[in-house]
Structure formats: C-alpha cells, structure tokens
Amino acid sequence: MWNQIYEYARDWLTISREVQENKADIKDIKQEVRELRGEIQTLRDDFTKLMFLVQKLSFDIQKVSKREESERKNLALQLENEMLKFERRLPQGKDLEK
Predict the structure, then answer these.
(1) Cβ neighbours of residue 17 closer than 8 Å, sequence gap 6 or more
(2) Phi, psi (5° rounding) for residue 90?
(3) Which of 19, 43, 67, 68 is a good FRET partner for 3, with 20 to 30 A between their CA atoms?
(4) Is residue 44 assigned to a domain?
C-alpha cells in the first residue's frame, strides 16, 4: 500500500512539474505570437506604403510618357513648319528656267 501511495505521489509530482512546464511554454508561445503579430502588422504597413509608391510611380510614368508623346508631336509639327517655310523660299521651277 505504501508503494502505491509513493507511486501516486511521484506521478502527482511529475504531472505537477509537467503542468508548470506547459504553462511556461504556453506563456512563451503567447509572447512569440504577440511578437509575430507585431511583425506582421509592420510588414502590412510596409507593403501598403510600397503599393502606394508603386502606384505613384505608375502614374508618374504615364504622365512622362504622355508628355514625351506630346513633345514628339510638337517637334514633328515644328519640323514640318520649317520645311514648309523653306519650300516657300525656294525658287519655283519656272524661275529656274529664266
């Protein structure tokens, strides 16, 4: 009978120690979860900022592209105007025969 009481006491102490270890492990895991949640939130914030910057760059690229297209059209028109002015200054074919 004393042997059985000793076994129960030993099992109780073992279980008690394991429960304390589990509580400590749970506490550590909860802390890790809190830290991970904070890191995830930081990553979300960084991702949101990055997406905003990518969107802004996309708009800027579109604006630059439109402006460059407009400048090319203007240069083509200026070139055409200069060519027309130059053609008007050239003597006509009849004038060359004289």
Answers:
(1) none
(2) -70, 145
(3) 19
(4) yes
Is 13 among the domain residues?
Answer: no
Note the pLDDT tens digit of each residue in 46-98: 999 999 999 999 999 999 999 999 999 999 999 999 999 888 887 776 655 55
Q: Is residue 51 part of a domain?
A: yes
Identity (one letter) of the amino acid at 53? L
Question: Per the structure block, which two tokens stand in for 1?
Answer: 């009978």
Residue 61 lies in a domain: yes
How many whole angstroms separate alpha carbon 51 and alpha carbon 35? 24
Residue 52 burial (C-beta neighbours within 10 Å; 0-12, 13-18, 19+)? exposed
Q: And the tokens for 71?
A: 């400048």
**Number of domains comprising the chain:** 1
Query: Which ranges in the chain belong to alpha helices (H)?
Result: 2-89, 93-97
Domain coverage including residue 43: 26-87
